[in-house]
Each structure stands twice: as structure tokens, then as C-alpha cells.
Design goal:
With about 425 residues, the chain is of the alpha/beta class. The chain is built from 17 helices and 15 strands.
Length: about 425
């Protein structure tokens, strides 16, 4: 059955032919495999999804980006077409065990109407995710219905893989489908614990696609392979950079983290952000790259600003010329040219993290140029281009190029941990094929 799921994913991105199937996924049951083993008509299927969508700050109700909602549609519709009742389960923000009525940490009410439109069916929303009332609502489902549970993180035990919550969720269905890649790296009640209370647990299409691309990039890339790593802090990206040194031919670094590397090289960085406790580790990383023959490239020039603001006074300076109270907020034009040339040589490219403070137009050029070059590499050369991490995804979507790369990952931390070669608890808990 894995062959058929591979074809289904490949229709959206034919360049996946360069990859072998992920061994981690080959060993696990997928949603099509589940349907081949069980007659799902009239059966309740608990489907863990990621409904963490941004809300308009003006009203705390209107969904401003439905990317994650659209991502669950293929699996949900497949199950509905099989006659299953789909019970959607998700967290929403970080309420930390409190019941919050509205906002980004509140109830899941804002996603109900958008999901109705996307799935083309009514949705029964309940105000809890376990207990007798929820069990009664689940038992009343007949055939091809959709029910949405309340925010799982209203229970503090969710993030601790609380067995009581896992058991409570397990009473709602006999089968479990994991399609929330963004939380697959967490051993939570609704991502891992619940699987032990099910007859069978399977991977949905979204999870399968994520594993296929990200594991493919790590395990069997089409060489040369490149990683473009940005973001503010070295500390959050150090493990993935170390892991990618084993796979990549070239690694480009951007974002605020570069100033810690400059300090490790002995440069003055002015008022730019530096993680003092990471300087020795940055030096060690550069030495490891050199020893392995991996090109670890830092920007050669920087866009400086006299304050952290879009209307700041700016200047372009060579790395050796940074001083005073000015701070670096983007990579410079020479660096963009250098990075573009390197991107043009790579056949597999993984991008995680922006090159600068792209939210401010004055410091978005570096990030936008990378996005455009990846789209060009995909279109003109058939390069495999994978964008992972919240800020990278936001940046490429803001540039209007989200549909012009091979794959956009829906998981930030999960993407990084998979690229590091770690096993994801939400995948490990699934049934074997």
C-alpha cells in the first residue's frame, strides 16, 4: 500500500522521484493501508491534526492564514469517502491547562466555519476533548460525519503525555490517524499516548509527505546538497547544523546567529546580537566543517541599522568594518550574489530560517532573494527545494513563492529534529505496516 500513497503525494510534487522512500515511514502503517485492513464505514477515527492557525489581532476570531487547515483536507476526505466518522483533535496555542475562551490560546471555534468550507460538510463542535458528554457525542455519529474536539491543551497533562487524557481520547474511536507533523516530535497524550488505546494507528497523507521529503533529503539526497540556515540564535540551530555537516556539501548561514560566528572569528559586531556562551561552540563548528571538507559560508557584508526599526538609518558594511552602536539586520548585496551562485550549484536544498529581519521591508532583501533563487532552482533545474520552519515558510509565502518550491514543511521543531536524524514520538507510536 505504500506505493499508492507515494503516488498520491507525488502528484503535487513530481520531483520526489529522486528520493527513496523513508525507512521510518516504510515500517509504519499509512492511512491507505489502514483502509485496506479495516472496513472503515461507520467507524470512528480519531485524527490528530494541527489547527494552529493565526488569528486577526483586531478580532481574535478571523483566520488569516488557512495553510494548516488546507493541509488536513486530503486525509480527512479520504476517510470520509470510506464512510468513516472523523473526530478531529488538536491543540491551539499554549493555554497551559487553563480554559481560555478566545484568542490564540483559546477555544477552537474560529476554525469551524473555514473547515466546513474546506471539507464540504457540517462539523459538530464539542466543548471538551474527553468525558461522558464527549463520549456520547462520539457514539451518536453515524457515517461520514465530522466532529471537532476542544483544545487538548486545556488539560495540563496533554504536554506530559498524561495517561488519563490519552485513555479518555482512546474511548472516542477504535482507530487513530496521526497527521499533525508539527507536533510529531512531542510525546503528548494526543500525539503518542493515545495510540496505545487504539486497535490500529496510521500515518495520514501530510505526515507521510513530510517524512518522505525531509527524511529523503537527509538519507538519500541528490548531490550536491545544501542547507541554508538562518534565524536569530545559534543555540536553537546548532544541533541541526552539526547533523547536516554529515550530509551537506555546502551550508550557508544567515540571520542574527551569524554575529556569534563573527565574534568567534575575532570581529567586532557593534550592537548586533551575540550569544556569548555559544562563541566557543561556533568556533568548534567551523573547525568541524573545515575538517570534513564542507563549505560553511558566512555573509561577507551586512546591512547595518542605527536602531531596530523599519525607518532606521542604514548602511552596508563589510564584516570587518562593523563597529559602534550599529546592528546588523540583513545580509548585504555581495553576500546575496555569493549565496545565489552557491544555490545555483546545488541539487537538494533545505532552507530553515530567514536571512534577516524580513518582517521589516528595509531588511527583507536577503530573505526574499533566497526565496526567489530557490523557486528558480526548482523551476529551471528541477532541484529539490525544501522549506521548513515557521519564519522561512512565512517568508516564502509573503514573497508569493510558496507554490514554486518542492515542499513546504508544516513543522518547525519537528522539521529540525527530523533533519537531525531523531526519531519522532508521534511516528514511533504508530502501528507497523
Amino acid at each position: 500500500m505504500f506505493t499508492s500513497i507515494t503516488r498520491s503525494v507525488a502528484r503535487a510534487a513530481p520531483r520526489s522521484r529522486f528520493y527513496h522512500s523513508s525507512q521510518q515511514l516504510l515500517e509504519k502503517l499509512n492511512v491507505e493501508g489502514l483502509a485496506s485492513k479495516v472496513d472503515l464505514e461507520g467507524q470512528n477515527v480519531l485524527m490528530r491534526v494541527d489547527l494552529n492557525v493565526p488569528l486577526d489581532k483586531a478580532d481574535d476570531v478571523t483566520v488569516t492564514d488557512d495553510t494548516r487547515l488546507r493541509a488536513i483536507v486530503p486525509t480527512a476526505k479520504f476517510l470520509l469517502d470510506k464512510g468513516a466518522n472523523v473526530i478531529l483533535c488538536s491543540h491551539f496555542g499554549r493555554p497551559k491547562g487553563e480554559i481560555i475562551e478566545t484568542g490564540k490560546n483559546g477555544r477552537l471555534n474560529p476554525v469551524v466555519e473555514p473547515l466546513k468550507t474546506l471539507l464540504g460538510t457540517d462539523i459538530k463542535k464539542v466543548d471538551d476533548c474527553m468525558g461522558s458528554d464527549v463520549e456520547a457525542a462520539a457514539s451518536s455519529l453515524t457515517k461520514g460525519e465530522v466532529m471537532l474536539l476542544e483544545n487538548t491543551r486545556f488539560y495540563a497533562g496533554e504536554t506530559k503525555n498524561d495517561p488519563e487524557l490519552a485513555a479518555g481520547l482512546g474511548k472516542l474511536a477504535d482507530y487513530f490517524v496521526m497527521d499533525a507533523f508539527g507536533t510529531a516530535h512531542r510525546a503528548h497524550s494526543s500525539t503518542a499516548g493515545v495510540a496505545s488505546h487504539m486497535k490500529m494507528s496510521a500515518a495520514g497523507y501530510l505526515l507521510a509527505k513530510e517524512l518522505k521529503y525531509l527524511k529523503g533529503a537527509v538519507d538519500s539526497p541528490t548531490k550536491p546538497m545544501m542547507a541554508i540556515i538562518g534565524g536569530a540564535k545559534v543555540s536553537t540551530k546548532l544541533p541541526v547544523i552539526e547533523s547536516l555537516l554529515e550530509k551537506c556539501d555546502t551550508i550557508l548561514l544567515g540571520g542574527g546567529m551569524i554575529f556569534t560566528f563573527y565574534r568567534a572569528q575575532g570581529y567586532d559586531v557593534g550592537a548586533s546580537m551575540v550569544e556569548e556562551d555559544m562563541i566557543d561552540l561556533a568556533k568548534d563548528l567551523m573547525q568541524k566543517a573545515e575538517a570534513k571538507g564542507v563549505k560553511l559560508l558566512l555573509p561577507t557584508d551586512i546591512v547595518l541599522a542605527d536602531k531596530f526599526s523599519n525607518d532606521a538609518n542604514t548602511a552596508i558594511a563589510k564584516v570587518s568594518e562593523i563597529s559602534g552602536d550599529w546592528m546588523g539586520l540583513d545580509i548585504g548585496p555581495d553576500s546575496i550574489e555569493l549565496f545565489n551562485k552557491e544555490i545555483d550549484e546545488a541539487n537538494t536544498i533545505v532552507w530553515n530560517g530567514p536571512m534577516g529581519v524580513f518582517e521589516m521591508e528595509a531588511f527583507a532583501a536577503g530573505t526574499n532573494e533566497v526565496a526567489q533563487r530557490l523557486a528558480k532552482a526548482t523551476k529551471e533545474r528541477g532541484a529539490i527545494t525544501i522549506v521548513g520552519g515557521g519564519d522561512s515558510v512565512a517568508a516564502i509565502n509573503k514573497a508569493g513563492l510558496g507554490d514554486q518550491v518542492s515542499h513546504i514543511s508544516t513543522g518547525g521543531g519537528a522539521s529540525l529534529e527530523l533533519l537531525e536524524g531523531k526519531e519522532l514520538p508521534g511516528v514511533a507510536a504508530l502501528s507497523e505496516e
